[in-house]
């Protein structure tokens, strides 16, 4: 296919995708709107039914109150009085609930006010009737009943309630029609949308099949073009491995050869120190000569008694030598560390089954003295067993636990926890402490070679964590830290549960 044909096909595919996306968006939005509207209309239908039921409930309570009052007036039985009082107590709450329900309808609000007025009159009549009966004046109670009947209070209540019911029935018809119409529109929208989606799916299938044929042709050409790609990759990988080995050999040779001049410097520094002592003793003996020209006796065996500029010169000389010795010692430690790293880099890892808890308990036992001096407790939680290189695994956790002990807060009892779990074929180990913590800006710095973070009040060359991360990577895992200043640290090591030596040794 020509480039122009590919561009045209890509254009139509993009156009079809955009059209399908637009159709799906419109259908989704319309369906959501119509479904919500249908739900809202259905809610109003249910609301209308609830209002009607509440009106009937109110009328039922009023009738119960009237029946109880008449029964108590005729028989003065306590059951009738109890039933009457329960009904009267339920009338006002039922009326209030009805008022809340019809609050959205102005016409119904006018009706409820009229109904409330009539009910209040009838409740007052009930109260007076019951008072007359309880006071032994049944005649007055009967007269009050006849007065209430003549005033048509009960009829007024019934008529007003029936008017409200008729209004709700009218609303029910309107709202039911609206709900049916919304549901019909929603169903129509869904049907039309489904048809358009099917049509777009058919067109998309046709285009995908065309694209698949073109892709198969392109893959065939790609296989032909990259027939020797695997051989090229193997060749480049071998070159990279050889270059990596060469770098390790170079680092070993350089660090090894640096030791010779360093040893010479150390020897000449010692000789220079002895020579300086002889010179300043000679100066001291020349400075202390008697008036007759005879040298005075020294202040003591091996002592150098100097004054003024000579004394200052002697102190400067000693200070310079001390600085040279300190620098030589530091360089010696760095060269030793580089040699150890190069030796470790050349070592072939061998996978063995490791009882993780047993190995870490042995590490903790070797560090028990340091932990006791730091007033630290080391807690081991459940740990998963792994298949890995035992020496590398031991070096990883020895460094982490030693650092956790070393960087605890002075004067605060230390608490170090080592725990582990498994997830998706990996063992996840965490070494946490309540020590001084690490500033978040230094989280990556601490893994760099010869780089340290925080207060430098502990011995070290800045190699431990860099070495640990290198070992973790060679074992096919990852390492991270979570820490805040003065809030402790948690180092997380993720390693394969069953590590295969071919995964890493071939890639060194």
In words, what does this structure look like?
This protein has 508 residues and is an alpha+beta fold. It is built from 11 helices and 7 strands. The protein has helices spanning 3-75, 78-101, 106-134, 138-150, 153-225, 229-287, 308-346, 356-366, 368-373, 390-406, 464-474, and strands spanning 351-354, 376-380, 386-389, 414-423, 426-433, 478-483, 489-496. It has a 5-stranded mixed β-sheet with strand order 2-4-5-7-6. It has a two-stranded antiparallel ribbon with strand order 1-3. A hairpin with a 5-residue loop joins strand 6 and strand 7. Helix 2 (78-101) runs antiparallel to helix 3, helix 3 (106-134) crosses helix 5 and helix 8 packs across helix 10 (390-406). The protein is elongated.
What are the SSEs and their pairings?
Blueprint lengths: L2 H73 L2 H24 L4 H29 L3 H13 L2 H73 L3 H59 L20 H39 L4 E4 L1 H11 L1 H6 L2 E5 L5 E4 H17 L7 E10 L2 E8 L30 H11 L3 E6 L5 E8 L12
């Amino acid at each position: 296919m020509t480039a122009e044909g590919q561009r045209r096909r890509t254009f139509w595919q993009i156009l079809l995708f955009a059209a399908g996306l637009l159709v799906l968006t419109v259908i989704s939005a319309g369906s959501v709107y119509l479904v919500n509207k249908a739900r809202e209309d259905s809610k109003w239908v249910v609301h209308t039914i609830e209002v009607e039921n509440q009106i009937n409930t109110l009328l039922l309570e009023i009738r119960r109150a009237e029946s109880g009052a008449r029964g108590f007036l005729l028989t003065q039985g306590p059951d009738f009085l109890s039933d009457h009082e329960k009904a009267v107590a339920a009338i006002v709450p039922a009326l209030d609930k009805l008022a809340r329900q019809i609050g959205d309808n102005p016409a119904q609000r006018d009706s409820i006010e009229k109904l409330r007025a009539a009910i209040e009159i009838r409740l007052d009549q009930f109260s007076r009737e019951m008072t007359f009966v309880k006071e032994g004046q049944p005649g007055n109670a009967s007269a009050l009943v006849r007065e209430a009947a003549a005033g048509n209070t009960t009829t007024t209540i019934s008529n007003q309630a029936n008017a409200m019911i008729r209004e709700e029935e009218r609303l029910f018809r309107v709202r039911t029609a609206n709900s049916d119409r919304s549901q019909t529109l929603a169903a129509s929208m869904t049907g039309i949308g489904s048809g358009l989606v099917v049509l777009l799916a058919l067109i998309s299938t046709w285009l995908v099949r065309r694209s698949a044929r073109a892709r198969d042709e392109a893959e065939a050409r790609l296989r032909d073009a990259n027939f020797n790609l695997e051989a090229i990759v193997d060749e480049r990988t071998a070159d990279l491995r050889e270059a990596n080995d060469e770098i390790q050999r170079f680092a070993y040779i350089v660090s090894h050869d640096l030791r010779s001049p360093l040893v010479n410097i150390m020897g000449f520094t010692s000789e220079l120190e002895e020579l300086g002592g002889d010179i300043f003793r000679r100066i001291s003996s020349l400075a202390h000569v008697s008036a007759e020209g005879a040298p005075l006796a020294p202040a003591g065996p091996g002592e150098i008694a100097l004054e003024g500029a000579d004394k200052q010169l002697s102190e400067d000389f000693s200070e310079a030598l001390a600085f040279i010795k300190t620098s030589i010692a530091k360089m010696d430690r760095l060269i030793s560390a580089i040699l150890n790293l190069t030796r470790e880099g050349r070592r072939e890892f061998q996978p063995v089954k490791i009882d993780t808890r047993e190995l870490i308990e042995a590490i903790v036992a070797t560090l028990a003295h340091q932990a006791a001096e730091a007033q630290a407790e080391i807690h081991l939680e459940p740990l998963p067993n792994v298949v890995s290189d035992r020496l590398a695994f031991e070096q990883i956790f020895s460094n982490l636990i030693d650092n956790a002990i070393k960087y605890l807060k002075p004067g605060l009892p230390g608490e170090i926890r080592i725990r582990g779990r498994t997830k998706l074929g990996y063992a996840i180990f965490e070494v946490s402490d309540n020590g001084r913590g690490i500033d978040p800006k230094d989280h990556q710095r601490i893994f760099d070679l010869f780089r340290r973070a925080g207060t430098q009040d502990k011995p070290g060359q800045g190699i431990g964590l860099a070495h640990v991360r290198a070992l973790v990577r060679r074992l096919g895992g990852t390492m991270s830290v979570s820490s805040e200043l003065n809030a402790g640290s948690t180092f997380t090591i993720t390693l394969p549960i069953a590590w295969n030596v071919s995964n890493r040794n071939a890639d060194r």
